[in-house]
Amino acid sequence: YLVRFYQKRHRFANIPPGPKPWPVVGNFVIRRRFGPEADGSSKNAASVLTELAKLYGPVYSIYAGRQLIVILNGYKVVKEALSSHPEVFSDRPDIPAISIMTKRKADKISGIVFAPYGPVWREHRKFCHTTLRSFGLGRLSLEPCIMDGLSNVKTELLRLDAESGGTGVNPAPVISNAVSNVICSLVLGHRFDHRDQEFRSMLRLMDRGLEICVNSPAVLINVFPLLYHLPFGVFSELRQVERDITAFLKRFIANHLETLDPDNPRDLTDMYLMEISARRAAGEVDGGFTEDYLFYIIGDLFIAGTDTTANSVLWIILYMASFPDIQDKVQAEIDEVVGTLRTPSLSDKGKLPFTEAAIMEVQRLTAVVPLAIPHMTSETIEFGGYTIPKGTVVLPNLWSVHRDPNEWDDPDSFDPTRFLDEAGKLLRKECFIPFGIGRRVCMGEQLAKMELFLTTTTLLQAFEVRLPEGVPAPPLHGRFGLTLAPCPYTVCINPRR
Ligand code: HEM
Q: Rounded CA gap, 59 and 215, in Å?
């Protein structure tokens, strides 16, 4: 191991600098150097990695085990890598835990999020992207579905607030249900009642699966893949969770196959099944469009589209409650433009600049996917004055981009007006990239923006959200898992009329 490790260091003597790795584990213990947050919790990984850039420069390296990882910090280098050298920086690494679960082999790749950069990924991404767009604009429009879900959210929040006796509501489960239901409608053509037991247990399973993968000894599967097969503890629990989710999704696909009506596609699953038939009819033998592949695409959309959007909404609610003066201004704008006689709609987008600026400012400060999804170099490249070997894992540090002092004045302060010009019009800033940048940019960006806009405007039109009195204000640094989530909090929900 040591011989291979030092051979690698020597072969590319000019690899980016970085902290000295420990044998076997690499730089796993790096966080300890930076101490805890003010409330005693450990610093989030992205902010630790941003601090390291002050020591080693915007392009530096660390090791996870013997895997070389290069961290890109600040807008200039992230843009340079992902936009100017997309052919080199758009591959995904083979993460053992993911590969085992998605049955990834050299000749068989699955899904979109972790699929290697290449023709199969490209075709699937194009197909899903086009289909998602048609849901935003076409006859399968998702707006009524989102609004329907929000009407449940309002009722539930009010009910829970009344039951809380003034201590406030934890909005997380209600928001998470609504967001998951949007993905369900999109891919499965089915909206679940929020009390539906099967749906609730499916959400619990997904949460548990992610929790095990990110915050349990199961992360060691990435270093010792055979651990996945251990017959006890979190390892066997992970396999059970995987089996249950598989059974749930396969049931839906089977049901779609039985009831598919090509003249009336209900959802992305129907469209995909029709695409398989069309390709088979055209004589395509194995272009990658298969029912097996569909299964992983559905899984990807759930994983990529639920936690990210739900946490963004939860951050927006928390910031609005923590900055009541900003909330007041958002509400004044909604009252003026939308009024009280109707609920907000997508046609209001573009007419509520302060509200949109507030949403963007929360997204900037919280960078819900702070390190994007790991990229990998598909060939050796000279970059930023260093050599980055082929097969290096690359983490674009979006958190550092959103707090880059070269791009933002007073980057740590919460100030929506930075997204407005002097006339109060919305400014598009290139260095605002919560959805990433380049070929691997988020595929659900339009859908997510639609959800964030409708949710924020609908909830703030109806309610004033306030932090409960006598309870310490929740911290704004968040918990780092697969995404950056706010620490659990409660808010009081006061109807505005
Ligand atoms: C990838 C952010 C919502 C589907 C990503 C990436 C980011 C991101 C940063 C990684 C980009 C990279 O690797 O460089 C977000 C945020 C969201 C959100 C902040 C919500 C506010 C969604 C939704 C969907 C979705 C709703 C689907 C319906 C995807 C997919 C990828 C992705 C499929 C992988 C793209 C690829 O590898 O080609 N997202 N996302 N995301 N996102 Fe999102």
A: 27
**Maximal CA-CA distance, the chain:** 72
What is the mean predicted confidence (pLDDT) over 285-312?
87
Per-residue pLDDT of 74-117, as tens digits, reads 999 999 999 999 999 999 998 877 777 766 555 455 789 989 99
Q: How far is CA 248 from the centre of its chain?
A: 23
Rounded-to-integer distance, Cα 28 and Cα 49, Å: 12
- CA-wise closest residue to 431 among 54, 79, 85: 79
pLDDT > 90? residue 353: yes
145 is in an annotated binding site: no
The ipTM is 0.99
Cα 159 to middle of ligand 1, angstroms: 33
Which atom of ligand 1 is the closest one to the Cα of 441?
Answer: 11
Q: Tokens representing 292? A: 């097996």
Task: Please check the confidence at residue 31 and state whether its pLDDT lies above 60.
Answer: no
Least Cα distance to 269 among 128, 111, 447 occurs for 128
Shortest CA distance to 309 belongs to which of 418, 440, 149, 416?
Answer: 149
pLDDT at 42: 65
- Picking from 374, 298, 395, the residue whose alpha carbon sits closest to that of residue 102 is 298
CB-CB contact of 181 with 149 (8 Å): yes
Q: Rounded to whole angstroms, how far apart are CA atoms 485 and 475?
A: 11
Q: What is the three-class DSSP state of 35?
A: coil
How many CB atoms lie under 10 A from the CB of residue 161? 22
485 strand-pairing partners: 479
Q: Is 362 in the pocket of ligand 1 (CB under 6 A)?
A: no
Predicted local confidence at residue 371, as pLDDT: 95
| Cα 31 to ligand 1 centroid, rounded to whole Å | 26
Residues 254, 255, 258, 262: is their CA dihedral positive or negative?
Answer: negative
Distance in angstroms (rounded) separating the CA atoms of residues 82 and 409: 24
Query: How many whole angstroms from 402 Cα to the centroid of ligand 1?
Result: 17
276 Cβ closer than 6 Å to some ligand 1 atom: no
Residue 112 neighbours by CB distance under 10 Å: 23
What integer pLDDT is reported at residue 36 of this predicted model? 62
Reading the block at residue 484, the tokens are 């950056």
